Amino acid sequence: MPIYRQLRYELQVKKDRLFRVDFRALVDELKLFFDFLEKHPVLHGLLEELRTNMPNFDEWYKKMTAGRRIFWPSTEEERVRLCLAFLEHCINSGVEDEPIHIAMNTGYHGRSVPDAALFFLEQFFMPFYEYLDQHIEEYSSVLYLIEKFKLRTQWFERKRLYDWYNEDVSKGEAILDGLLRQFLFDNGIEYPFSTPASSSGRADIVASLHTPDPVIVEVKVFDGVNRGRSHLRQGFRQVHDYMTDYNKNVGYLVIFNICNKDLQFRLTNPDKPPRVHLNNKTIFLIVVDIYHDLHPASERPQLELYEIKEDELVADDK
Asked: Of the candidates 262, 280, 284, which has an alpha carbon nearest to the alpha carbon of residue 271?
């Protein structure tokens, strides 16, 4: 797709600038690179997924400094997360020669400061960059795609989905699940149409099971009455259990709001989109509002707040 080719080209241009910049401006150029990532939805989605369950920079840096060499985690994705931790440390430190200090303490044995900057980029920036480049090519930013589905639905298809749901409420959740399933498939996320089984049951969507990186999404409907706190708590627990079954650190609970209540979550983590960290796992909460009010905006009552606290969401049903 042309949009992804253009994005890869822009990302490459930003990367090339890092390798050309004077070492004293490297941290500033890294800030600009990350500003670019934050402003583009696809790259921002990838970045947010990588930021889940980040390794501890201080622990790894202490280990590397003691050994005067670089140590990597056991998997490629953990390595990329560690690289991200080093890059964000340099940005947040505000010290222009922090990448040089890191290079000198983790295995660079020369005397050239520009070469030390190059060592830092090759060791800590390039694995991170290559991960972004690869995942853009594969169109596999799941968080970005789900949020795109949310906006597309709320802007253009709210009434149609609301009517479909109400034609047969007993099958409404399955219908909405199928629509999300089709959207992800059309945008490059491959998964079987039958829901695969795991030891915890059946996830609504477990994508790309034939790859080393399956994607787990659970779909629930919220109506503020019969399908309220306990129903969403059940969905949250299902996502967590499936992530455990498939050894995944990131999962997604997609909630279709089909009532005139304002569903909000009170969470300990203030980041957007909403997410909950539990047992070294991160579950994103994406609410798709499809409630369709036939009254004009001036005649609609103020929405009633329906708030769910984090401890209510993560509690086990007994």
From this structure: 284
Cβ–Cβ < 8 Å for 124, 87: yes
* Cis preceding linkage at 127, omega within 30: no
Contact 59, 71 (CB under 8 A): no
Alpha helices in 94-167 (DSSP H): 98-105, 113-120, 126-137, 142-152, 158-167
SS (H, E, C) 220-231: EEECCCCCCHHH
What is the separation of C-alpha 259 from the centre of its chain, rounded to a whole number of angstroms? Answer: 27
Same domain, 290 and 185: yes
Q: Do both 204 and 258 map to the same domain?
A: yes
> Same domain, yes or no, for 58 and 108?
yes
Phi, psi of 66 (to 5 degrees): -65, -35
Q: How far apart are CA 61 and CA 69, in angstroms?
A: 10
Are residues 87 and 182 part of one domain?
no
Residue that terminates a domain, selected from 111, 137, 163 = 137
CB 279 within 8 A of CB 241: no
Does pLDDT of 11 surpass 60? yes
Q: Which domain covers residue 95, as residue numbers?
A: 2-137
Compute how many other C-beta atoms are within 10 angstroms of the C-beta atom of residue 54: 13
The last residue of one of the domains, among 94, 118, 137, is 137
Q: What is the pLDDT of residues 23-44, one digit of tens each?
A: 999 999 999 999 999 888 778 8
pTM of the model: 0.64
pLDDT tens per residue across span 86-96: 999 999 998 99
Q: Can you tell me the distance from the alpha carbon of 170 to that of 8, in angstroms, rounded to the nearest whole number?
A: 44
In tens, the pLDDT along 27-86 reads: 999 999 999 998 887 788 788 888 888 899 999 999 999 999 999 999 998 999 999 999
75 with 97, same domain? yes
